[in-house]
Amino acid sequence: MTSIRIGYGVDVHRLDSGIPLFIGGLEIPSEIGAVGHSDADVLLHAICDALFGAANRRDIGYHFSDTDPKFKGIDSKILLEEVMVLIEAKGYSVVNIDTTVILERPKLNPHIPEMQEVISKILKVELDAVSIKATTHEKVDSFGEGNAIKAYAACLIEK
Ligand code: MG
User: Fold this and answer.
1) What is the mean pLDDT of residues 75-96?
2) What separation in Å is there between the alpha carbon of 66 and the centre of ligand 1?
């Protein structure tokens, strides 16, 4: 019998000047970057949490503690690969994901096709199964003022 499960994830990081900005597995040219224990890739973290949620395997902080030196500065693509190992251990594969990144600047649209390629390879799905949307926060609140970045992800997994 087919089992289909939904999951969703949310992540936020503070932005600061003079550090790199990683989103969707890429380094995005920017004067401001995201602050975090890992590479602070907000989109990959939201996807990790969506997958954990779908498999009911707790959350990213539970698996990859932000006080563990092992994860200091780690490439979040490695974290997402580890999540996939857990998903597959439960017999599941990914059907599709749908995501939104909230960021005032820089514009992400030029980078989305490459992000889709990177993420689809890790999730072992077709490009068409990876939706990435970008929006600003209309200059409102911390996100709109360029002080923070947020991402949402929804996913479907099946076995
Ligand atoms: Mg995070």
Assistant:
1) 97
2) 9
